[in-house]
TrEMBL record:
InterPro entries: MFS_trans_sf, MOT2/MFSD5. This is Molybdate-anion transporter. The chain crosses the membrane at residues 6-23, 44-63, 75-97, 129-151, 171-190, 202-220, 286-307, 319-339, 345-370, 391-407, 413-430. The keyword Transport applies.
């Protein structure tokens, strides 16, 4: 492997280690209680197990389908089914968490994803399609139910609101960084070293999910969103839509999240062809681990930023979006600045090295984004419909990703990166607007809106 990869990986690892070990006393100046630390550690353990179940599968989904003999078109349809399921069924199931209980929704995630893993043992296309649908539902629950449970339980136990950022940043650092690296290495060990086949990471994922589910069942208490007697899902959707439409801050937050995550998921599909346009030999697993290190670095910075009163999350995220927009412009700029190579194979090109540094910068921005967006969601989204509104945010995201997947070969890669860069710049503009109105009081709270709607339509009252 080329020295360049080791230099980038080593530099990132050194900075992360310095921040986490050398700067720990500065980061943890917020005085917390023993009860909170136990609560935080329990959540981080569960979240890490959940993310391990997700990360173990990611690198091997496409590979497994190809070993079953399916072509690019069939595999593309399976991926679209997953995102489409997350948009349609996942939104409904995720929204039920507010009514039926967030703990129950987290257990449902474990069961659904375990069933999805089991379907990977079958080479039949229909069964694999069922697995993708189940996986889409699980994804919606992963990115809504756990956060909703955490926020509600945090305040129910009377913990300081500032402590919430400690849990967010550490969960992302461990779950989206350290666990991702370990899961990638462990999956590689199962498939390549032990020769257990491409389905073995899915079996391992099911085991981690089962362990996490046991911890949830034994140590978590239930909490709910809207505690009214009405179980009408349509009313819940309507109330969430009214909350988004009536509060500009919630609408801005949803748009920002969709723009950033849409660009992020598009980047996942594009980074490989961007770094190897002429079939250059690149170490995919090592590069993935490098990206995760960059993400850990970003979440470590986020922990320090959120521990201070200034700058506020709404302010520094404007800079994060501008930097992320610039980093995804590099594949376009290098086509004009660096002469393209027409030599097939070989090692990574000079332009590829520049792009890799830019991609690491983008992953660092992702590490900053996750705990920061969680903090803003905890501030602006009403508790009564938290899961419902968070799944509403994922609808445009899933539509966008499905369109990108369907047309991934229709546009040059530079056009796709340019589109993502524009989206991220728009996100920075929306973030600036959010920062300007952050302290503006809401026109009316959730209860007032619901009472108003009930009076206007008494037939929906129960």
């Amino acid at each position: 492997m080329e020295l360049f990869y080791y230099v980038v990986f080593g530099a990132l690892a050194a900075v992360v280690a310095a921040l986490e070990l050398g700067g720990k006393s500065n980061k943890d100046r917020i005085t917390t209680s023993q009860a909170f630390n136990s609560f935080k550690n329990n959540y981080i353990l569960v979240y890490s197990l959940m993310m391990a179940g997700d990360w173990l599968q990611g690198p091997y989904v496409y590979y497994l389908y190809s070993t079953y003999g399916f072509g690019k078109g069939d595999i593309g349809q399976l991926f679209i089914a997953g995102f489409g399921s997350s948009m349609l069924f996942g939104t409904i199931v995720g929204s039920l968490a507010d009514k039926q209980g967030r703990k129950r929704a987290c257990v449902t995630y474990c069961i659904t994803y375990i069933l999805s893993c089991i379907t990977k043992h079958s080479p039949q296309y229909k069964i694999l399609m069922v697995g993708r649908v189940l996986g889409g539902i699980a994804t919606s629950l992963l990115f809504s139910a756990f956060e909703s449970w955490l926020v509600a339980e945090h305040f129910k136990r009377g913990f300081d609101s500032q402590w919430l950022s400690l849990t967010f940043s550490k969960a992302i650092f461990v779950g989206n960084g350290l666990v991702a690296i370990i899961a990638g290495l462990f999956g590689n060990f199962l498939v390549d070293s032990l020769n257990l086949g491409p389905v073995s990471p899915f079996d391992a994922a099911a085991c981690f999910l089962a362990i996490g589910m046991a911890i949830i069942l034994s140590s978590w208490t239930e909490n709910y969103g809207d505690a009214s007697e009405s179980k009408d899902l349509l009313t819940q959707f309507k109330g969430a839509a009214v909350a988004i439409a009536s509060d500009e801050k919630i609408a801005l937050l949803g748009a920002i999240q969709s723009l950033f995550e849409g660009s992020m998921y598009t980047f996942v599909f594009l980074w490989t062809p961007a770094l190897s346009p002429n079939d250059e030999e690149i170490p995919h697993g090592f590069i993935f681990a490098t990206f995760m290190l960059a993400s850990m670095l970003g979440s470590s910075f986020a922990a320090r930023l959120m521990a201070q009163n200034s700058p506020k999350v709404e302010s520094y995220m404007q800079v994060v979006f501008v930097v992320s927009s610039a980093s995804l412009l590099l594949p376009i700029l290098t086509t004009f600045v660096v002469s393209p190579s027409n030599v097939k194979g070989g090692g990574i090109s000079f332009s590829g090295c520049i792009q890799l540094l830019g991609f690491c910068t983008f992953e660092g921005c992702c590490g900053l984004f996750w705990p920061s967006i969680m903090k803003m969601r905890s501030q602006y989204i009403p508790e009564e419909a938290r899961s419902t509104i968070m799944n509403f945010f994922r609808i445009p995201l899933n539509i966008f990703v499905c369109i990108v997947l369907y047309n991934v070969n229709a546009f040059p890669i530079t056009v796709m990166f340019g589109m993502c860069s524009i989206f991220l710049f728009v996100a920075s503009i929306l973030q600036r607007r959010l920062a300007a109105i952050a302290d503006k009081p809401k026109a009316e709270d959730w209860v007032a809106m619901k009472e108003r709607d009930t009076e206007a339509d008494p037939l929906n009252a129960s």
